[in-house]
Structure formats: structure tokens, C-alpha cells
Design a protein that fits this description.
alpha/beta; 6-stranded parallel β-sheet; globular
């Protein structure tokens, strides 16, 4: 199994973050006994000073460089990933995508219907690279803007409905798609550090949503269990 994480700022993380990708790697190391590799064209965290994904300052320096691979970008969404996912899948020989996208699209670039169209383009490009590709897609977790901007909140809700329909329409036995359940009880005050980006608790919830979908549908690993922290002292 060759896993590629695809996402926006919630997935790439910023310099000094742990990231839910790290939590997912911990889970796979502990719960999955089959061969796997985390793949992708990028390894960095977003560096605000450079305004680029050039940092390797993960909160746990023991996070193996080989497990840091991803296709995620600060400020990137379905709109940005659709044109590049095919080449990324092809080059990395990824066969399993874990995708958390949509918030940035709805917040800055496209409405729900346009974003859903980009989901379909993304999946078509990915499948052109590997017709047997499988993917787990996470619904959008609205940020604090949804609490004060009702039209934005409505777009997030409509997109999640369209995402569920897209998964149902396009999933096939040869190339199965899963819609992960939203992280249960996800609370912006408790689970993010700024109303958008996950803190440690939120990272576990996001990783758990993907891990539980993989386990329940495809018997990959086991149920998600929070692993002991291994972060080196500052």
C-alpha cells in the first residue's frame, strides 16, 4: 500500500507543528501489519517567514523523513490539486489517497458546485494515472468564519452534500471511494489553535476519521487509538 496525503494548510502544517499526518503514521506503525509506504512529491511544512513550504522543523524530529511525504499546500484546494494529482500519483506510484480539501476553495475561490466539479476533475486525473486507485475523502470541517458568515456556512454544508453524492456516484469495485465520517465532536475552540488549524487533540480526531474509515471498509489496521506523545522537549 502506497499512501499519499492530499490536503491544504490543515494537512501540510506549519513549522513547529506535529500534523495529523504524523498521528496517522504513528497509527499505521502500531496497528497495520502489512507493507506500506507514505509517498508524495513534497515533505516540507509551511514556513511563514519564507511564505513557502520549505521547513523541516517538525515538532518531533524523530518523525522519519520517509514518512513526511505528501501532496499538500498552504492555501491550496481542489482547484489547485486537480491539475497536479495525476503526475504526483504517477511519479510516486500512489495507490491510496487520503484527501482533506475544500475549505480553502469555498473560502476564497469557488462555490460549492464549482468545488464539486473540481473534485470530479481531481478524481478523473488521479484515476488516469492509476485506474485502480482508491481514496478516502474527508468532508469539510468549517472554520470560525462559518459562525459569523451564514452564506459561507451554507456553502460548506452544500459542498459536503455534493461530496457525498460524488463519492456515491463515482465509487467502483475497481477504484473504490470512501467518505470518511466527520471527526466526532470536533470543536473549534478545543480542537484548533486558531479556529482553523488543528491542535494536538484535533490532529488525533482527523487522523482517527481516516484510520477508522480504512479499518471499517478495507480492514487496514485497527480502530484508531491515541498514541503516547513522543515529542522531544524544547
Amino acid at each position: 500500500m502506497r499512501i499519499m496525503f492530499v490536503g491544504d494548510s490543515q494537512t501540510i502544517g506549519a513549522a513547529g507543528d506535529i500534523t495529523w499526518r504524523y498521528r496517522m503514521w504513528q497509527h499505521l506503525e502500531a496497528a497495520y501489519d502489512g507493507p506500506y509506504e507514505i509517498v508524495g512529491p513534497r515533505t516540507g511544512l509551511y514556513d511563514a517567514a519564507a511564505d513557502a513550504p520549505v521547513s523541516q522543523e517538525y515538532a518531533d524530529p524523530a518523525f522519519p523523513r520517509s514518512a513526511r511525504a505528501h501532496l499538500a499546500g498552504w492555501g491550496e484546494g481542489w482547484l489547485h490539486m486537480a491539475p497536479v494529482v495525476g503526475d504526483a500519483v504517477r511519479a510516486a506510484r500512489a495507490d491510496t489517497l487520503l484527501v482533506a480539501l475544500g475549505l480553502i476553495d469555498l473560502g476564497f475561490y469557488t462555490d460549492a458546485d464549482q468545488t464539486a466539479a473540481n473534485v470530479r476533475r481531481f478524481l478523473a486525473e488521479a484515476r488516469a494515472a492509476d485506474p485502480r486507485l482508491r481514496a478516502v475523502l474527508l468532508p469539510v470541517i468549517p472554520n470560525t468564519r462559518a459562525q459569523t458568515d451564514p452564506p459561507f456556512a451554507a456553502e460548506c454544508e452544500r459542498f459536503n452534500e455534493l461530496l457525498a453524492k460524488t463519492v456515491a456516484d463515482l465509487s467502483t469495485p475497481a477504484s473504490p471511494l470512501l467518505l470518511a465520517s466527520p471527526p466526532p465532536g470536533y470543536d473549534l475552540t478545543r480542537d484548533t489553535y486558531d479556529g482553523t488549524h488543528p491542535n494536538a487533540h484535533g490532529e488525533h480526531l482527523i487522523a482517527g476519521a481516516f484510520a477508522d474509515a480504512l479499518h471499517q471498509a478495507w480492514a487496514v489496521g485497527g480502530p484508531y487509538r491515541r498514541r503516547p506523545e513522543k515529542v522531544a522537549p524544547a
